[in-house]
Design a protein that fits this description.
single chain, 516 residues, mainly alpha, Fumarase C, Chain B, domain 1, Fumarase C, Chain A, domain 2, 3-stranded antiparallel beta sheet, two-stranded parallel ribbon, 9 strands, 52% helix
């Protein structure tokens, strides 16, 4: 990973989705030196340290956890309690979050703890920032959180790494954190009372995943829009479907933005664009109405995610300046769960849209004179060549799987932990589902991009095609794709170029629609 020199400040300013994504991709972090923020952080930690020694009852400090909150912890064991919390939650299973996702998780937890209401020392916050700076990233299993009481089990891997236990990613390798700390001449932290609970009892995993999911979904909306414009030209479609006047009478702003982008991609004033079809099929004509749902949802996804990101979301809340211990349920991930359940539905519909567009391009009954299956073979060899036939089958499979994953996770609450956690958010499962839907949709979009590029290339070979219909935006896009993708004339395996396209999509390789 290439580590950026950019440092995101935590503690005084609001953290954005873009900040978390930047850290995931290599930016560093630093703790604010703002006097008011530092005073709040220090007061919260000092209040916890003083109160428990005065025999104050603080959940998770002088009591057991969850249903065990009625168990009193004798003073001589209080300082051991955080370590036990990190250890008994070390039971995650399934695939592991990668280093990029792990960095996002560190950033999301740091954003919450640095608000100054969690009773943690400045030393702990600085160590989290140092982990980001040195690219020491806890290896965190994906499965094991019900999303309330926060992401306890996955975040135990963050806490454990701070005390020198379990594994981390470092310099592209998986290593023992103890070995990495020794290499960096760092001592493991001894967690103070409340610090184990503060790290673990929050929504950082689901929120970090939500930030990454939002970023990917936002880009897919733009790329699907560009592909739709390419498909419209390839099918000799009717550009009037995207006229601004038409969308002024149904003024969803995101939907209108998508229509405007398509219209701009198709707009060439000097070219007569009369189509022989009065109305194109829905997967072209209604594309703004489909992609537009995602585009219109992005602002409220952002509101939900960034509010959660900038919240103190553990329990109890420690108001050190006012000297209050506030017991509540801010670890509950309902807002992230709802946002991610909604995001995956909107994204999966984009997968379905692009799959349907591909189906039109393949079929001679609908593609307005393009070769069957977009084969570029010469006539004498057309009988044995099949072009994009199997790619379209694959795209349908990926779209179907994406649609299958749209079942909302948030409605599958389970009662657990002796019925203390009797209603839970499932926000982390919803967020993980959204990543899977995005992964599958990116595969469909990769196939759609190659098919649209192939279709435009074949259309440009036709003697009666008006080359001016390929606007500069579409010409630039096809040229960029053609740098690594040769038109399919004779059948060849396309897995490699599909994987390359997926990689470029995830890297957000193409600059798309800088305005709006």
């Amino acid at each position: 990973m290439s580590i950026s020199n950019t440092a995101i400040e935590f503690g005084a300013k609001a953290i954005t989705i873009e900040d978390v994504v930047a850290i995931a991709r290599g930016a560093s972090a630093r703790i604010t030196d703002d006097p008011a923020a530092c005073a709040r952080i220090n007061a919260s930690a000092k209040f916890v340290a003083d109160l428990w020694r005065e025999e104050g009852v603080i959940y998770g400090v002088t009591t057991g956890y969850g249903d065990s909150c009625t168990v009193s912890i004798p003073p001589h064991l209080v300082e051991e309690l955080p370590l036990h919390l990190t250890r008994f939650h070390g039971c995650g299973l399934g695939r592991e979050f990668d280093a990029i996702q792990g960095r996002a998780i560190l950033a999301a937890r740091l954003a919450s703890l640095s608000r100054g209401y969690s009773g943690v020392r400045m030393e702990l916050l600085e160590r989290l920032a140092e982990y980001i700076e040195l690219d020491i990233v806890p290896v965190i299993p994906e499965e094991g959180s019900v999303g309330a009481s926060g992401d306890l089990t996955p975040l135990s891997y963050v806490a454990a790494s701070l005390v020198g236990e379990r594994d981390v990613y470092h310099q592209g390798q998986r290593k023992s954190v103890a070995a990495v700390l020794q290499e960096k001449n760092l001592q493991p932290l001894q967690l103070a009372p409340k610090e184990g609970l503060a790290i673990m009892n929050g929504t950082a995993v689901m929120t970090a995943v939500a930030c990454l999911a939002f970023d990917r979904a936002q880009y897919l909306a733009k790329l699907a829009t560009r592909i739709t414009a390419m498909v419209s030209v390839a099918l000799k479609g009717n550009s009037n479907h995207f006229d601004g006047k038409l969308f002024s009478v149904k003024p969803h702003p995101g939907q209108g933005q998508i229509a405007q982008w398509i219209h701009d991609d198709l707009h060439a004033p000097e070219v007569e664009r009369n189509s022989d079809r009065l109305q194109d099929r829905y997967s072209v004509r209604c594309a703004p109405h489909i992609i537009g749902v995602l585009q219109d949802a992005l602002p409220w996804f952002r509101q939900f995610i960034e509010t959660e990101l900038n919240s103190a979301n553990d329990n109890p809340i420690i108001d050190g300046e006012g000297e209050h211990v506030l017991h509540g349920g801010h670890f509950y991930g309902g807002h992230i769960a709802f946002a991610m359940d909604s995001l995956k539905v909107a994204v999966a519909n984009v997968a379905d849209l692009i799959d349907r567009q591909m189906a039109l391009l393949m079929d001679v009954k609908f593609n307005n004179g393009l070769p069957s299956n977009l084969s570029g073979a010469v006539f004498e060899r057309s009988m044995i060549n099949h072009g994009f036939k199997a790619v379209q089958i694959g795209a349908s499979a990926w779209a179907a799987e994406a649609l299958k994953h749209t079942m909302p996770a948030s409605v599958f609450s389970r009662s657990t932990e002796c019925h203390n956690q009797d209603k839970v958010s499932m926000g982390t499962i919803a967020a993980r589902d959204s990543l899977r839907v995005l992964e599958l949709t990116e595969q469909v979009v990769a196939a759609g991009l190659l098919a649209a590029t192939q279709a435009l290339s074949l259309r440009q070979q036709q003697s009666d095609f008006n080359q001016q219909l390929i606007t500069p935006a579409l010409q630039s896009m096809t040229e960029q794709v053609r740098k690594y993708f040769d038109v399919v004339e004779e059948d060849r395996p396309l897995e490699g170029v599909l994987r390359k396209s997926v990689q470029l999509i995830r890297e957000q390789h193409w600059e798309l629609y800088s305005h709006g």
